[in-house]
Amino acid sequence: MASKSNAAVAEPEVATAAEPRQKRRQKPKRQPRYHVILWNDDDHTYSYVIQMMQKLFGHPQEKGFQIAEQVDKQGRAVCLTTTFEHAELKRDQIHAFGPDPGIPRCKGSMSATIEPETDVEN
């Protein structure tokens, strides 16, 4: 005589066309990146730029010198590439850095802008 069991049996789930077997894990979308551009002028010294790069961006002295040289020779230099909000903050910090004490005629900070990073640059 067979005894009946009250044990539950798990039935396998059947995937339907509307429901894929495995849900694909989506990678978080990367935020667009922006360059902080420092612009050249005749009212700021290399030492001013180097000091500003060290204080505002944490760049070592050598990197600050490279940026100062690039600004001087090419008219502009990328100081940092980051998110839009961080780029805005760094641009504003450059604008608030103040005049160069090494040049008496200097009346204010250097100029900086932000621009989107392009795929060509990567």
- Cα distance, first to last residue? 77 Å
The fraction of residues assigned to DSSP E strands is: 15-25%
Name given to the CATH homologous superfamily of the domain at 41-121: Ribosomal protein L7/L12, C-terminal domain/Adaptor protein ClpS
Q: In CATH, what is the class of the domain at 41-121?
A: Alpha Beta
**Which spans have pLDDT < 50 for at least 5 consecutive residues?**
none
Question: What portion of residues is helical?
Answer: 25-40%
**Rounded Rg:** 28 Å
Alpha-beta classification = alpha+beta
Q: In the CATH scheme, what's the topology name of the domain at 41-121?
A: Ribosomal Protein L30, Chain: A
* Anisotropy-based shape: rod-shaped
How confident is the prediction overall: mean pLDDT? 86
Oligomeric assembly: single chain
Tell me the number of strands: 3
CATH architectural label of the domain at 41-121: 2-Layer Sandwich
| Biggest sheet architecture | 3 strands, antiparallel
DSSP summary: helix tally: 3
H and E order: EHHEHE
